[in-house]
Structures are given as C-alpha cells and as structure tokens.
Amino acid sequence: MTNPVLNFLALALYLSVGMLLALQLLRGRTIGGGAKIGIFSLGCGAIVLHAVLLYTGLRLESGLNLALTPTFSLVAWIIAVLYLITSLSRPVDNLGVIIMPMASLMVLVDWLWPGQMSMPLTSRIQAAHIVISFLAYGLLSLSAVQSLMLLLQERHLRHRQPGGFIRALPPMQMMEDIMFQMIGIGFVLLTLTLISGVFFSDELFGKPLKFTHHIVLAVVAWIVYAILLVGRWRLGWRGRNAIHWTLAGFVLLVLGYFGSKFVLEVLLHRPG
User: Fold this and answer.
1) Are residues 153 and 45 located together in one domain of the fold?
2) Which parts of the chain sit beneath pLDDT 70?
3) Which distant-in-sequence residues (6+ apart) come within 8 Å of 16 by Cβ?
C-alpha cells in the first residue's frame, strides 16, 4: 500500500523501539517496569500500522500478492509479532535491537519497490499451508537472531569483557534454552509445511510435486535442524557448535525461498 503517512509512522515506530532498546542495553540495563511497558506499547503500535499496510497490499482480486517485497514485509511483520508475544513471558527483549530495525527496513523496501505476483487461494488446506510455513519461518528467524546474540555474548565472555550491554543479557544457559525452544516449535511447523507440500501438492499448487531448488534446500534445512535437535538431546550440543548449526539451517531456508524468488523476479523478471 502506497500510503506515505502510514508507511512513515510504521517505520518511525519500529526504529524508535530499536533505538530505545539499544540505549537500555548499552547502559547495561535489563528491560523492565515502565520502560518495558512503553517499549512494548510502541512495538504494538508499529505492528498494527504494519498490519494495515499488509492487509491492503497483500489482497488482490485474484488471490494473495506474494511477490518478493510484500513477502519480505509479511515475514518481518510475523517475526515482530512473535517477538513481542515471546517477550511477555521470556527475557528476549534484546532481540528487538535487530528485529525492529529490520522490520522498518522491510516496510521501507516494500514502500519504495512494491511488487505484485498473484497466488490464487483455492482451499483451506492451501491457506493453512501458507500460515504454517510463515510461522515456521518466523520462529526459526527468531532462533537465528537469538543465536547471533549468543555468539556475541560468548565472544565477549571469552575475551573477558563482561561489561556494557552484556550485563543486560540473560545467562547463556537461559538464552540457549530459549533458542532451542524456538527451534523445536519451528521445526515441528517446518515438518508440517514439508508434509503438506509433498502430499497435497496438486491441491496447493495445481501441479504434481517437483524437486525444485526451493524444495531441495528446504529439505536440507530440515535435515540440518533435525541433526541439531538430536545433537542437543543426545550429545548436549551447546555454544558455538549449536550456534553454527542454527545459522546454517536458517541460511538454507532463506536461500531456498527468498533466494529463488529474488533470482526469478529481480534477475530473470519472471513470477517467483
């Protein structure tokens, strides 16, 4: 939706939340009390405005607009929503330093370079497949951001630099536990996405299943996450080992979906 006022306000609110969180963390303060309520309220305002933009921008007469930039914007919104919901019960406020500015960037990109690619909605199974797949991407994206924070925390502690914003982060064990909770739920949703794509391909896409780059990379990502979860369960994987596997799975997912859409829509000028 090309509404300059709504786009600007959503952008400004996302950036404000990111800046406020960054200021708190740089001072070594945990987010709580009135500061948490204020930041959470601003975040809610940002996702509401973003939702209005998505509602009008994704709806087409022939179906959903799932071109590259609207899809980026939708995934960023889902990640922001999941982040805010998770922050109510888990100490993940620090993730907003990355998530909220990225959401503002996706709003800007969709505003400046709106795309259009219609995907007809023909059944409830198709709608459920789309919802589950985006939730899987959202949760696994959150786990990737959490792994980056863990990597930063681990490097600071390794070099015996526990000051600054590191003081505001939860203990590493707690951050790892939260990361694996996100990965576990995201893995279940990714599994459902792959199963529905395999067994209901005709109903979902109007054609038999083909092993495209998208499918192959998604399956490889699923294998990476499966190995990671088994490694955690059986071998107690943690630290850099777990972080690297988490990021590897996430990169494969991004390449599988957004990479192929970028090549098709931007480089080859074909529907993604």
Assistant:
1) no
2) 1-2, 122, 160-164, 199-212, 259-272
3) 42
